[in-house]
Write a structure and sequence with these properties.
The protein is mainly α. The chain has one domain: Up-down Bundle (Growth Hormone, Chain: A), CATH 1.20.1250.20. The chain is built from 18 helices and no strands. 58% of the residues are buried. The C terminus is likely disordered.
Amino acid sequence: MDRQAMLGWAAVVATTLVLTFSAYTVLSITAIGPELAADLGMPRSLIGYQISLVYAAAGLSGLYGGTIVRKWGPCRTSQGSMFGTVIGVLLLITGWPPTFILGSVVLGLSNGVIHPAASHLLIRMADNKHRNLVFSIKQTGVPLGGIAAGFIGPPLALTYGWEAAVIAGAFASFLLFLMLQLFRKEFDSDRQSDSPIDINPFTGIGMVWRSVSIRWLSIAGFCLALVQLCLMTFLVTMLVTDAGFELIDAGLLLAAVHAAGVFARLGWGWVADLVGGATGILTIMGILSTVICLIVTQLTPEWPLYLTYLLCIVFSITAIGWNGIYYAEIASKCKADEVGSITGGSLAFVFGGVSFGPAIFATVYFWIGSYTLTFGLVSLAAATAVVFMFMARKSDTTLNVSKI
């Protein structure tokens, strides 16, 4: 294997680890939701608002991702993300509401720049023939972080307190912050240190909106992200509250769900490369998610354990497996030097769904009083994604956004 190929795979591994450690730190909060809520003396459903705050901040920083990556490079940007994760955790573990809120914001700001940095690096260094698979490998970082959160979070929280679960994420993030320095020269070789920071947060959104295909894809991404975060945020709480699970058992099922998400992302990436595009695959996934959301409304403690596992894992395959081919499809529709900005603009839509989804879910739950029935309404978001995917397919042409 030549040096360039080795650097390409190093980029894939590095971006995957950055996403894994960031995802673990954020998702560990959902995995220990009941324990955290009890310690802080708040309703379990309020965890949804905390996750919404994290991803609202991520959406904001993602808007500046392109200009930050151009100036400092994808490696330095990723290092900043990992260091910010450490700072966010230090604020969280105080347990004081104002610093807990501030820590959530810092975690979100640190998370938002990851995708523009990763897309910029991978589109430049990775094998273009397997673009969907490469981006899907990177995106396995989210379910891998979720697996770790499900396996590690509840035992740490029950044994040492909820703070231990998030401190583990901070420790891993700090180690990766140091290790990334080994690759900075190669990964940041195209950075433009004299490039000014574009303070207009709507530059990336404008580039997205001027491309009809990317516009519809991004709106569909909003809907798909909403469905995904509702599943990831409320699965454990739903299983404990509505399905009669113990916290440890619910955490294990959460880990299984994220494990299925890992294989789903790899599988969907392989299929998308095989058929030569991702939009049709994303449409099918949206249809399946719509159906499964409706089936979740029937979940009760009387269901056999294997059937509950089967339902949740199939839900994961459709609702968690979409991200890799989505980002690959976005990246394929713009020039290499536009990838960071357009990815950041598209992230504004995705993180919009991520931030609004849990908050909307929590609000609806207050009215309905059932987590399973609330998932029935989530099916509307999945169905809306299908509509916009059809619109994206209809207008599906690769455009140079800068010329539109």
